[in-house]
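Inverse folding, one chain.
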């Protein structure tokens, strides 16, 4: 929870907690460091998988299916995972999912080093990693208020985004260097090792006893969450805006391995890192103002990416598009974290993640198919036009800052 409470009424505002205040809390600081290491490994994995597929086949559809395979499990388990995370001990659930991802990454790394990986083998293990990540995500995001005090909830959400983007800046470049020097197999093995920091934290974390607001079957909990989403106007606005963005914007990450292939594995990693600069969003700007501007910038950069051949030009384009990408997702993620009461938090987050990652999966497949038929530049042009068309959702689904209030955290003993 933020120290500044914003409501639809006329409650007075109190000062906002310092942006770095959560770092003074040992639990949050330890998990944040472990998470950055894990995120870095994940981005190395993403670079390795995308690059390895271009070594196995040059089909744009198969290359784009790497992104789709990562997010396809969203459609299978995201909603049940959110309901489960509201009913069970999130610490134990996270230990299971983290261990699952260690095993999947390690086996894929070994198979790659043995040179027995085929395009479909790569997609299968990418799917297994995605399955673990999707089951992990709702519980992972929902534990934030459990490891920081109420006043530091809002800045903790922001710092989590910072940590993800730090890893997004470092991981692809590091992955490109590792792949160029030793091959994708070692990138996969390093990703497996990167999960152990989080596992050690979770193993030693003495999770406080939290009030059990709801018990029962996962299916009943899931239905309760869906009923809440259906009746909450702010939640619907967040979901509609997220879906419009994710479907249209997925073209660039899906097709980047093909765009970057002439520049080698290291070049690919550096280009992807160039798309990872966290913008400074001033608090006086509305959520809508930031998102609309960033979407227009991102659409322009997608169009330009399909028509630029030089490494320097692509670097500048991806630098700007990455700034816009992170600005958009930072706003949507804070909105998703704070749009529901605490006892429904994991379920609401699971529905948000379903829309975000499911849209990315569907979009990646669609843009890959279009690129196969019409070429990469034309597919990126269509994607840019779709992003601009998605702005039609703004007038009816505004996300101005006064609509997003921080909900009470779970009661501690």
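Residues assigned per position:
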């Amino acid at each position: 929870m933020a120290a500044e409470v914003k409501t639809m009424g006329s409650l007075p505002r109190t000062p906002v907690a310092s942006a770095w205040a959560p770092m003074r809390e040992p639990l949050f600081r330890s998990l944040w460091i472990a998470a950055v290491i894990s995120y870095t490994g994940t981005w190395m994995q993403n670079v390795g998988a995308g690059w390895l597929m271009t070594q196995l086949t040059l089909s744009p559809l198969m290359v784009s299916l790497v992104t789709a395979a990562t997010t396809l499990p969203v459609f299978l388990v995201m909603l049940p995972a959110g309901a489960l995370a509201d009913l069970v001990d999130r610490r134990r659930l996270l230990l299971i999912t983290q261990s699952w991802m260690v095993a999947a990454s390690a086996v894929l790394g070994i198979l790659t080093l043995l040179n027995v990986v085929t395009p479909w083998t790569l997609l299968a293990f990418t799917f297994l990693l995605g399955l673990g990540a999707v089951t992990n995500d709702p519980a992972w995001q929902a534990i934030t208020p459990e490891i920081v005090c109420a006043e530091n909830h809002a800045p903790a959400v922001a710092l989590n985004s910072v940590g993800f983007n730090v890893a997004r800046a470092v991981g692809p470049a590091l992955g490109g260097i590792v792949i160029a020097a030793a091959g994708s197999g070692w990138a996969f093995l390093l990703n497996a090792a990167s999960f152990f920091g989080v596992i050690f934290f979770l193993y030693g974390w003495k999770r406080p006893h939290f009030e059990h607001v709801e018990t029962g079957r996962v299916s009943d909990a899931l239905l309760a969450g869906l009923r809440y989403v259906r009746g909450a106007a702010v939640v619907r606005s967040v979901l509609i805006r997220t879906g419009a963005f994710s479907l249209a914007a997925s073209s660039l990450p899906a097709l980047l391995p093909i765009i970057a292939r002439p520049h080698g594995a290291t070049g690919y990693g550096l280009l992807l890192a160039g798309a990872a600069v966290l913008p400074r969003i001033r608090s006086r700007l509305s959520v809508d103002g930031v998102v609309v501007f960033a979407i227009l910038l991102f659409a322009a950069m997608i169009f330009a990416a399909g028509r630029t051949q030089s490494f320097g030009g692509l670097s500048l384009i991806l630098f700007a598009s990455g700034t816009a990408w992170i600005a958009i997702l930072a706003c949507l993620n804070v909105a998703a974290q704070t749009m529901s009461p605490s006892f429904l938090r994991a379920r609401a987050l699971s529905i948000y993640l379903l829309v975000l990652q499911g849209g990315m999966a569907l979009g990646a497949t669609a843009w890959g198919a279009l690129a196969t038929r019409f070429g990469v530049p034309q597919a990126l042009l269509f994607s840019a036009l779709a992003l601009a068309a998605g702005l039609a959702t703004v007038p009816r689904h505004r996300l101005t800052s006064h609509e997003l209030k921080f909900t009470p955290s779970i009661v501690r003993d």
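The domain at 21-403 is CATH 1.20.1250.20 (Growth Hormone; Chain: A;). Residues 1-16, 274-284, 401-413 have pLDDT under 50 and may be disordered.
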